[in-house]
Amino acid sequence: MKTFFNVEDIGNLDQALAEAKEIKQNRFGFQKLGKNKTLLMVFFNNSLRTRLSTQKAALNLGMNVIVLDVNAGAWKLETRRGVIMDGDKSEHLLEAIPVMGCYCDLIGVRSFAGLKDRDYDYAETIVNQFVQYSGKPVFAMETATVHPLQAFADLITIEEHKKSKRPKVVMSWAPHCRALPQAVPDSFAQWMNAADVDFVITQPKGYELDPKFVGNAKVEYDQKKALEGADFVYAKNWSCPGVTNPADYGKILNKDMNWTIDKQHMSWTNDGYFMHCLPVRRGLIVTDDVIESDHSLVIPEAANREISAEVVLKKLLESL
Amino acid sequence: MKTFFNVEDIGNLDQALAEAKEIKQNRFGFQKLGKNKTLLMVFFNNSLRTRLSTQKAALNLGMNVIVLDVNAGAWKLETRRGVIMDGDKSEHLLEAIPVMGCYCDLIGVRSFAGLKDRDYDYAETIVNQFVQYSGKPVFAMETATVHPLQAFADLITIEEHKKSKRPKVVMSWAPHCRALPQAVPDSFAQWMNAADVDFVITQPKGYELDPKFVGNAKVEYDQKKALEGADFVYAKNWSCPGVTNPADYGKILNKDMNWTIDKQHMSWTNDGYFMHCLPVRRGLIVTDDVIESDHSLVIPEAANREISAEVVLKKLLESL
Amino acid sequence: MKTFFNVEDIGNLDQALAEAKEIKQNRFGFQKLGKNKTLLMVFFNNSLRTRLSTQKAALNLGMNVIVLDVNAGAWKLETRRGVIMDGDKSEHLLEAIPVMGCYCDLIGVRSFAGLKDRDYDYAETIVNQFVQYSGKPVFAMETATVHPLQAFADLITIEEHKKSKRPKVVMSWAPHCRALPQAVPDSFAQWMNAADVDFVITQPKGYELDPKFVGNAKVEYDQKKALEGADFVYAKNWSCPGVTNPADYGKILNKDMNWTIDKQHMSWTNDGYFMHCLPVRRGLIVTDDVIESDHSLVIPEAANREISAEVVLKKLLESL
Fold first, then answer.
1. Considering the entire predicted model, what is its pTM?
2. How far is CA A202 from CA A230, A280, B89, in A?
3. What residues of chain A, 261 to 320, have a C-beta less than 8 Å from chain B?
């Protein structure tokens, strides 16, 4: 594995889940792989879970870790050729990225969608530059359109808690006070489509995700109908993906609080589990009683971030 | 030892001092204990000595260290239930703290007193939430009311320099231009009361510390009388603890420069040592000649922060 | 080696280059030296290359690394004696620096020239205080007037690419939109004067470097004449060093774009290599085609920063 952005990158999904199970029982068993290897974590945006869990996974593998916080405002990279750089951009990406590649063996990059230019975001402009110019394997720590370490951790969590061979998993849009990127729902959809689950997406009209992530998922606009019989309810807000109307990209079209997951919503399910990637706004996405119930998996999902990261780092190290 | 906030937590004080002495001679002798164990240091406030010395101590023990700087302004945690989180608080402590606990074995927390709400500060609201919800052993890297790593380092320093079996130790209030918390004097009083020393507190009227920290200490409002015969002078400013008048909590009641420790003050002592936890404002707390004299212990105290932290981390690791 | 600021500190230059060559083939071969040794990196200014490469070098040697970012604005150190510290300076350097020395074995310091007070900058006031008061070996991670880790990496790169025993190396001033310090050209001049090369400096009138760095270098104000026959072109901007007119210190005297290194400039050389320490402003210092050509050494120079740092750290460790 030379990069990690999409579900295909991890190879056979059943084998990856088996590897996750093995690593969870034996986190420190692969330190020969990481010895004298350095992970560089580049953050263009803030992070709590990703920062901690990825560091922990790398340390489990015996790696060295260097964390670089790039203040996106302060360190603007020039991307054009033929320009006189006499403005606020003090370095060109064609130098900055190969230089970062000099001092490490693997690079993780976090760079959120700006939500202003759909084409720029969906082209994954920033991380593709890292892939092209760093000379080192690159993996996503949440990019403009994907957050695969989260989706993989979610899949591990579903695998650990499922009560039937092919559970019903419903990803439900929920309201939020700020415009959020689509990276988490995009990746979750992509991974669920690849997994052995019955996957349904439910959302208000206008919130359709990009077709390349929706794939063959069933889309159901009636939230109640979608949730009926669900084994897992994956709540998440996202801003308008701009599929039907590109001018709406990144906007908040709807704050309908009827979509907030409460006890009544959960009563429609098959005694289902509640899931969310965190951080979560209580009262908007989910009510206190649901997230605090014994059917809430939010903390196990977070804990599995260490495991998904360790599997991914291990596979990247094995391919060096 | 499952938590470290108060002097009782360390167990027998003589044994702890003996362990400190042993560790100071053999800092790298306990690395089996720390192997594959991760310390998470969470800072809600700035730090120089605590940040460096605690990291150093953990590295001495062979631990991995992850440092998390929480910008108190940017990352506000919701603490109430039943609220719609549509304001500036993007995460609830009931998720954030267990998540942090997922990725480490021990947690150190720095969270200063806000000095606005005495009940909130003295209830140790923030760190108690870490104890309750993180699922991991928690220790203080200076909380609202205690700074035990400092007090333990101070006691080690006194032990190393005392010339009699039961030295006289005087903690003297001194003036300052800003309102400071009471965590350092609170802990120092608590530890001195537990140690085999003759302990006196001297301060202007109105600056009485909370009775639970004063304990059986002798309180003397006449600074000269207090300092007479002192073997160690522990200077420190603190703002009004609000014991006699809660409305004065956190205020500066007095800037009397007669309390500044100068050569004359030291002349009243038994050829005593000068101590301060640092950082110190010269000219307000102490004069240049006193802090630079060969009877100043401020640098040895700071150096012993590595030792007190290593003893505490070792004890926490042994209890895992 | 107890400090590392000037070329003399490294000892015999041929031996140092031989050691660099050996380390580049065997980066992890000296981990016994670094075991249980801690490097403290103190940054008063931002850093990308120095931060990453020095960390990487220390990790190669098996050291522990602690990074301290000092916000120069927020943490002002008092340097005078006899003053009442009731202003914005909360700590005196006479305490802060020895304290930092308590928790490490080696200290690297980055502290740029302020470009306001030539005497203060050229006296290296800040780093000399670290040398005097920390009690530990100190090395430059770019100071007010020197950046020896860069100059050493540049020399290694020249050694690796030279086609004759004594190549011609030309350092050429180039225009820039901001006032930059002289640390890089100062050190480069110092190291080239000590190396077995034919060294020429070319710059507009008024940009003369301090004589102690110019040494015996040939100075040629006609850029074309200087570049003729050059094997290596080392482009760099610097602000006025204030040698002929101290009142001009730190000012931009000239933005003449005829000094920008383009293909025509390179055509005057002996099929020469282009060098720059990075970050570089394209269009001002150098054109896209020159920096992107197969004769550009900017990335190899950056990669050799890991090597120069490892040689220096190794020598400092050997002298402990």
1. 0.95
2. 12, 19, 27
3. 278-284, 288, 291-292, 298-299, 302-303, 305-306
